[in-house]
Structure formats: structure tokens, C-alpha cells
Amino acid sequence: MSELGTGLKSRHLTLMGLGMSVGAGLFLGVGAGIRAAGPAIILAYAIAGVIVVSVMRMLGRMAAQWPSPGSFATYGRRAFGHWAGFLLGWLYWFLLIMVGGAEITGASAIIAGWFDIPQWIPALLTVIVFATINLSQVKGFGEFEYWFAMIKVVVIVGFLVVGAALFFGLLPGAGFVGFDNVRDTGFAPNGVAGIATGLLAVAFAFGGIEVVTIAAAESANPAQAVRRAVNSIIWRIALFYVGSVVVIILLVPYAQIGAATSPGDSPFTHVLAMTNLPGVAGFMEAIIVLALLSAFNAQIYGTSRMAYQQALEGDAPRWLATTNAHSVPTNAVFVSVFFAFVSVGLQWWNPPGLLEFLMNAVGGCLMVTWVMITLSYIKLRPAGGKGQPWGAWATLAALIALTALMLFDASTRPQILSVLVISAGLIGLSFLTRGASRREPGARLS
């Protein structure tokens, strides 16, 4: 057993966070929020953004003071004891495994369509490739994810530029669009109820940024790297999400916007189609596949490090903490890949009720994680966050209000109920483990 490496830099952390949060959820899911709230979806993104910014700043301060590959699980354990660390570690591990399985299923389905081959072939090949990448030195993983995510960043920046050119009528055959689409619907066509529904649709769009603080422990200067990465990610995601939404609202008639089930239905495709360039739908397919694979790659990384830290804390078999010559937790990577396959198998098998229950639980996992991060921060008050944490209390109140909103909405209520069942089961299991760590929880791991 040895320590993890220190090959990640702040630019790796920044693009890793962007790669996790800017993905298929933005390219395919943004239409559902706009359909619910109309142009007022910008308010929903602003509210959700403020909540996530606050949570990430709290998490960033704790990660700077106590860098750990277990990140918020370590802070939950430090603040509230063994049960909290066990709950947070395995709940987030479960979230990433299930989402990763869904993403590799979606990506392999599109790739299989390109080459007219069985879906299991691209699924198997891509998992093998990403397992190999994650078994190499962490610096190699960081570089791969950096350039993977950079392509998405370039595409979104290009989308914003094209959108601005279309709006001002600067492209051949295009005229000034103006605000006709917004005037036709009004700012909030479905009122406050629509904004609330839109908020639920976008609240978890920023999920995945937390992986940055998990990775911080494998950087040479964790405090500086995580601070830079968190601050950089926040404004870039705000630009990408809000900017993309503004472009779509201005250019696409409200009647054409809705939940997308394929790249051809995506609001991004509708905007790019206005340029009259051929192959727009195929281009969006390629970008969505790239987004899915990039997120899946980072999820293998995140789950392996969570399992590694849980093993150090005595909440998982000790062999999961074994590292290879490159300081990579090989057994933890193999376990993550295995359960990613299990998740894929569940989605193809689709036993009655089970998959729906598990995916609903995934929807509520981030809420539990964010609430526990906030409570841990309030309890621990790391350096840089001294004094009365009024911002943290305000964030907690907002998260509780969002949870209440989910409970009163029939479409999101199962997410809360399912995750409560999963959480209760994990807390029960925590009492069956010894939870004895090899070191003081939160100590520097590399």
C-alpha cells in the first residue's frame, strides 16, 4: 500500500470540473427547463448557480485545508463521525456509478448506430480504453481529460459566437432577430409555478464539479490548485450555461423548444441549423458522444478515489487501497469499471421497478451531498471561513426549500423518497463496519 501521486495541476482540475458539468445534460436537457419556465429560466439558473457557487466555495475551503481523495466524505466524518463519512462516500460513489452506466449506455447506442454494430461492442471497447487511461499515471489521466474537455469548451464558445452572429444578422442569409421570440411568450409564460419547475429541471445541471476537490489531493499544491480551479470553474460554467440559454431563448421560437431525446431534437441543433450548414445533427451527435465519454472517464476516476479513501478509513476492504508503481489505486479502478458494467447491464436488463428506483435515488443524491457539505462546513469552520457562517446558513435554507419543492412536485418526489431509503440503508450499514482509519481523517494523503 502506498500514497497517491501528485501529478495533477490546476488546469487539469479546472477542465475536469468543466468536463463533468458541461455535458449531455446541457446539450439535451436544457430544453426541458426552458419549456417549463420560458425566458424566466435564466432566473432558475441564477438561483441554482448561487447555491452551487456557495457549496463549491465551502467545499473548496475545506479541500484547501484538508486535501483528501475522499473529499466531502472525509469532512463529513471529521464533522459528525463515522456514519456521515460512510454515508457520503458510498452515496456519491453510487451516484457516479449509476450516472456513468447511463452515459456509457447512451454513448455506445449512438456509436453503434454509426457503424451498424451491436451496442455491446462500443460499450466494451470504450470501457477498456478508459480503464487503461485510469490505470496510468494520474498526470496522463489529467492530460487526457484536459483535452477531452477542451474540445467541449471550444464547441460551446463557438456556439456562443455563432449565436451572436445569428442574432445580429451577420451571417449570409440571416437578418437581425431582435427580441420577437421573447415578446411572443412573455418573460414568464407559466408564471411562478413554471419558474419553480424550471428550477427543479436545472438544479442538478451543475452536478459533478465536486470531483475537482476529490482530485485536489493528487496535485502538488492542493490549497492553491483547488482555490484556482473552483474560482475558474464557477465563472466559466456561468458563462457557458447562461450564455447558451440566452442564445437559445433569443433565436429559437418557444414552440420548438422541449425535452430532447436525440441530438436532432436538441435546441443546440436548432440554432446551428439556422446557419444552413450540412451535417449539423451529426456534428451534435459527435459532441454529445464526446461529452458522455469525457464525463464517464472522470467518473471512473472519482469513484476509484472515493473507494480508495473509504478503504483507508476502514469502510471498505483494505485491498481497495492498494496502489501500483504509478501510485494509482488499481483495485479501486477495477472495481469501479466492474460496477460500471453492472450499471450498464441493469439498464439493458431493466427489471420492473428496480432501475427506476435506482435512477430516482441518483436524482436525490446530490441534494444529500450538498446538504452534508454545508453542515460539515458550518461545524468545522475551516481557515478562511471564520466567524458566523451566515452564507452557509442561507445556503442550507435554500437547499431545504429546494428539497421541499421537490417533495411537493409529483415528478421529483420519488427522487427524495428513493434517496432517503438508500441513505437509511447506508447509515445502517455504517454501524456494521469498524470505521477505523489508518491515519487521522483528513490528513495529507500525498
Feature tags:
17 helices; disordered C terminus; 71% helix; mainly alpha; Amino acid/polyamine transporter I; 446 residues
Give a quick precis of the structure.
The protein is mostly helical and 446 residues long. It is built from 17 helices and no strands. The protein has one domain (10-72, 85-355): Amino acid/polyamine transporter I (Up-down Bundle).
The biggest beta sheet is recorded as:
none
CATH architecture call: Up-down Bundle
Q: Structural class of the secondary elements?
A: mainly alpha
What's the CATH topology label?
A: Amino acid/polyamine transporter I
Radius of gyration from the alpha-carbon trace, in angstroms: 21 Å
Distance between the termini: 13 Å
How many beta-strand elements? 0
Q: Which term fits the overall shape?
A: globular
Detailed description of the structure:
Residues 436-446 have low confidence and may be disordered. The protein is globular. The chain has helices spanning 10-21, 24-37, 41-65, 72-80, 82-115, 120-135, 138-167, 180-185, 191-202, 211-215, 222-251, 267-273, 280-312, 330-349, 354-380, 390-408, 413-430. With 446 residues, the chain is mainly alpha-helical. It is 71% helix and 0% strand. It has one domain (10-72, 85-355): Amino acid/polyamine transporter I (Up-down Bundle). The protein has 17 helices and no strands. The relative contact order is 0.21.
